[in-house]
Amino acid sequence: MSQTPLSFPRRIALACGSFLSILTDSGFAARVAGLRDGVDHAPQPQPQPVAPVAPVPPVAPAAPAAPVAPAVLQRAPHEAAQQLLGLLQRDARLIDFVQEDIAAYSDADIGAAARVVHEGCRKVLNEHFRIEPVRKESEGSRVTLAEGFDAAAVRLTGNVVGSPPFTGSLSHRGWRVTESRLPSLADGHDTSIIAQAEVEL
Fold it and tell me: What's the Cα-to-Cα distance from 131 to each of 67, 98, 118, 138, rounded to whole Å?
């Protein structure tokens, strides 16, 4: 882009003003010298020292959230016992049988009722439990109990003296529950009602 030439009087005024500025302003003097030499003599700003930046520690990936287990309905021991009684009453009429005064009935009548109760109780046990003998030997066989035997699983009877090992006759194999499959209870279910009252209309 071409510039309009300055007139002589304008150049005189510019020279006088520049003269005074050169004497009083070192920065202006350096720029004028640069124009004359074709080099920029203006003082360059000194770079300011940059404080070292502390390295940012790598962010550990967030651990995946543990899966939330579905809510499990917790039952108190007495509720499970009441539920079992309800099942025995429903399928075997066990409570009816036990609560009945059977003194006036004949043995034949009691035997017939006991057969129904037995069948229903067996059905409940097979459906909701897995039950296995504590001892695998046949009843009446001779067994030896070594030192450290499980006293919670085997009860000694008869003349118990001394210390193990004990040798005796197996009078009962015992029973152990290895699995329980009681049905889930609905919210608000009252397990204390083991048999509803019935009203015929």
Answer: 34, 23, 16, 16
- Note if the pTM is more than 0.85: no
Q: Would you say 150 and 118 are in contact if contact means Cβ atoms under 8 Å apart?
A: no
Distance CA 47, CA 44 (A): 9
For residues 174 and 136, what is the distance between their CA atoms, to the nearest angstrom?
9
For residue range 91-137, list pLDDT tens digits in order.
999 999 999 999 999 999 999 999 999 999 999 999 999 999 999 99
Phi, psi dihedrals of residue 133, rounded to the nearest 5°: -65, 145
Instruction: Please tell me whether the peptide bond between 43 and the residue prior to it is cis, using omega within 30 degrees of 0.
Output: no
Can you tell me the distance from the alpha carbon of 117 to that of 59, in angstroms, rounded to the nearest whole number?
68
Size of the chain, expressed as the number of residues it contains = 201
